[in-house]
Design brief:
Order of helices and strands: EHEEHEHEHHEHEEHEHEHEEH
InterPro entries: D-isomer_2_OHA_DH_cat_dom, D-isomer_DH_NAD-bd, NAD(P)-bd_dom_sf
Keywords: NAD, Oxidoreductase
Pfam family, one: 2-Hacid_dh
Largest sheet: 7 strands, parallel
CATH superfamily of the largest domain: NAD(P)-binding Rossmann-like Domain
CATH class of the largest domain: Alpha Beta
Number of domains: 2
Distance between the termini: 33 Å
Helix content: 25-40%
CATH architecture of the largest domain: 3-Layer(aba) Sandwich
Family: Belongs to the D-isomer specific 2-hydroxyacid dehydrogenase family.
Protein name: D-isomer specific 2-hydroxyacid dehydrogenase
Low-confidence stretches: none
Radius of gyration: 22 Å
Mean pLDDT: 96
CATH topology of the largest domain: Rossmann fold
Strand order of the largest sheet: 8-7-6-9-10-11-12
């Protein structure tokens, strides 16, 4: 067994790689996107980003020394969490990096719909000067239910309150947290969702959240509810969503994530007037790698000290 390796699958700037290299002399730093070094893969102990093919090999290897993976995303539903738990591998995510970007995205699509801007864009493409097909509402004083009250949910609540929106939250236990008038537990969500004008999904994908937005949940909502999904696509039953939009149970949906990505060309969602589709862009963040490195270095220093993580460690049996 050779010297342990920190494997950088997410390509970082040269000065960022040097920052990692200067933090420890005990590890070989391998920049996977720049170097083609011949290495013993089993010597990889830390991985920044997730090389799925290599990662599966390491998870299957009885001699792998993999101990910690730093994910570049907030969601970790694509990881084999059971296998991570079996092999006692630490997993941390990038939660917090995307909070401002996703919050701005949500408010952007809301303003686009509520102020008739989306219709104006369509009219401009046709060179039509008309107000006849433009509907408008006041976003201020609307009730918004933010399903998921972590970093992103809290940031969205603070931003939304600046526009006069009344913000309510849903989390596992119903505990009240920053930015919310009141919070409810997952099990009580269907009881209060009919009081809300806007429902925003920010939940990670777990066994409990898989297709939680189904016919039953949509029927529990107030007629004409606005639905936004910036969480995970498989949290929504797409056929039930389409039915809710066609029936008027939902007045509008802004969808950034889907059960199948890319969204198939034959999906009815493409041609629905009351749907706004974006190609999984809500989390795109300026300075992303700088922010990611900050999390990674905090965790690396702690890991080198005592084998634990300082920030964003995933509870593997919960999936977040």
């Amino acid at each position: 067994m050779g010297q342990p390796i920190i494997y950088l699958y997410e390509q970082m700037k040269e000065e960022q790689v040097e920052t990692i290299r200067q933090s420890t002399s005990d590890y070989i730093i391998v920049d996977a996107k720049r170097e083609s070094l011949q290495i013993n893969e089993d010597d990889i102990e830390i991985m920044l980003g997730w090389d799925k093919e290599l990662g599966q090999k390491l998870l299957s290897s009885v001699t792998s020394r993999l101990k910690w993976v730093q994910s570049i995303s907030a969601g970790v539903d694509t990881y084999d969490l059971d296998r991570f738990a079996e092999k006692n591998i630490l997993l941390s995510n990038a939660s917090g990096i995307h909070s401002i970007s996703i919050s701005e995205h949500v408010l952007g699509v809301l303003l686009t719909e509520f102020r008739g801007i989306r219709t104006s864009i369509n009219n401009q493409a046709k060179k039509e000067w008309t107000r006849e097909n433009i509907s408008y509402q006041q976003l201020s004083m609307k009730k918004m239910l933010i399903v998921g009250t972590g970093h992103i949910g809290q940031q969205l609540a603070i931003f939304a309150q600046g526009l006069g929106i009344q913000t309510y939250g849903v989390n596992t236990s119903g505990h009240v947290t920053n930015g919310f008038i009141e919070c409810y537990s997952h099990k009580n969500m269907s009881r209060i969702v009919n009081e809300m004008d806007i429902v925003v999904n920010i939940l990670p994908l777990t066994d409990d959240t898989y297709q939680m937005y189904n016919q039953r949940m949509f029927l529990a909502m107030k007629t004409g509810t606005v639905f936004i999904n910036v969480g995970r696509g498989p949290s929504v039953n797409t056929n039930d969503l389409i039915h809710a939009l066609n029936s008027g149970q939902l007045s509008f949906a802004a969808l950034d994530v889907f059960e199948e990505e890319p969204l198939p060309e034959n999906s009815p969602l493409w041609e629905m007037d009351n749907v706004l589709i974006s190609p999984h862009i809500s989390g795109l963040t300026p300075g992303f790698k700088t922010k990611l490195l900050t999390i990674f270095m905090q965790n690396l220093r702690q890991y080198l000290q005592d084998g634990t993580l300082a920030k964003n460690e995933i509870t593997l049996h919960q999936g977040y």
